[in-house]
Structure formats: structure tokens, C-alpha cells
Amino acid sequence: MGRLSCVLAAVLTATSLLPAHALAQSAQSGESTAAVLVPAKVIRGKATFYELQSGAGNCSYPSPPAGNLYAALSPREYAAAAACGGYLNVTGPRGTVRVKVVDQCPECPAGHIDLSRTAFSRVANPGNGMVGVTYRPVRNPRVGRPLSFRVKEGSSQWWLALLVIDHGNPLTSVEVKAAGGAWRKLARADYNYWIAESGMGRGPFAVRVTDNRGHRVTAKRVRLAPTVIQRTTTRMY
């Protein structure tokens, strides 16, 4: 995964957590969407810091977010990639910073958030190594760019893996439709790509994306072009 934590989670002291999760809302369109677990309004825990060694972590984004303000969550909070792409406000002794969830911290218990060094320095002195913090999810964060898509290496008309970029809130559903076909719901892998195991043909495709705040949008003419970042004019909100 390319993570190097500055402080081992094994030394983490017991933390006090508020109720851990709440169910997300259904999509505004009224169509059924899978519920996703999202953090409670405020979580009280601990923070350490690390640096990504390559890429942008378990969430598979092609590069770290602007300003290197990112975070890795415990397996429970990462939730098999359900948290990917969401934003958290983290508050510590020095102040508050907004970070994007891009990674998983396998050794972290729930309530331990692993920040980039840059983000950690906004909330505490890095010399402290580990500090008490609170963090909460950001509703409808300002992303600044429309949706982008990346088709994974090895994708073909017989197997498709699709990454959604710059969506703001965590996603609950991605569906794809080929010309003249029906909508097909993709399965999310724990590395944050959405998979059609038997493929979707040669494309181009329409892609319908739903987030955990009920926003649902459709982007058109996404091509079967592995490794290319395909930018659109479609925004989630």
C-alpha cells in the first residue's frame, strides 16, 4: 500500500469514541441505493502522521490531493473503501485542518487517524508524534473540479474496473450503461475501483454515480481507455 507510519499504532492508548456510525440517506431520486456506514458527527481519538511512499494509498487515486492534506483510516472506518474520497475536519492543539481520505491504516484501531505530515503540522507539533484530536465528516465539501474517471490497466470489453475521482462525499453506488443497454450496478473493490466482472463491451458508457448524501448524477461518453484520466463537466452537487 505504500505507507510508512511515524508512530506504531501498537502504542496507542485507549480512546473515547462517540457512537461510531450512522446510516447514510437514500438517493434523492427515490431509487434504492446501498446504505453505507459513515462516521458519527464527532469522533474523539488520536492522530499520528506518515508519508505516502507511492501513488495515493489504498484508494488508488493517481496522485495525493492538493497541498498533501490527506488521511488514512482504521480498517473499521475505511470500511472496504466506502470512506474513500470523503473529507474530514480534524482538530488538534494547534487548530483545524481539512483532509481527504485516501488510504487505510491496517494497524490502527477505530479512532486512530493517520495524517500526512503536512496535515499533522496544522493541528499539532510533529515532534509530539501522537496527539489527541477530534474529527468529523464534511458534508458536501467544495471540491473545485468536476468528476473525472480512470479505467484501470487490464480493462477490456470483457472486464471493466472504473475509478471515480473528485466526488466530494463518499460514494454508495456506481452504475454503468452501454449504448442501448440497461443500467448495471458495479461492485466496489477494497482498492476503490468499481468492477464489472464480465465487462461492459467496448464503450463509450454512461456512468451514474450516487453519494452518501443522496446526490446522483450521470456522466456520458466515458471511454474504454485504460490509464487515461477522463475529465468531465459533471459535478456531484
From TrEMBL:
Signal sequence bounds: 1-24
Keyword Cell inner membrane: no
Gene3D superfamilies reported in the protein's UniProt record: Expansin, cellulose-binding-like domain, RlpA-like domain
Domain Expansin-like EG45: 56-145
One Pfam family cited in the UniProt record for this chain: Expansin_C
Keywords linked to the UniProt accession: Signal
Lineage per the UniProt record: Bacteria, Bacillati, Actinomycetota, Actinomycetes, Streptosporangiales
Source organism of the structure: Nonomuraea turkmeniaca
Protein name: Expansin-like EG45 domain-containing protein
Record-linked CDD domains: DPBB_EXLX1-like
Transmembrane segments: none
Superkingdom as given in the UniProt entry: Bacteria
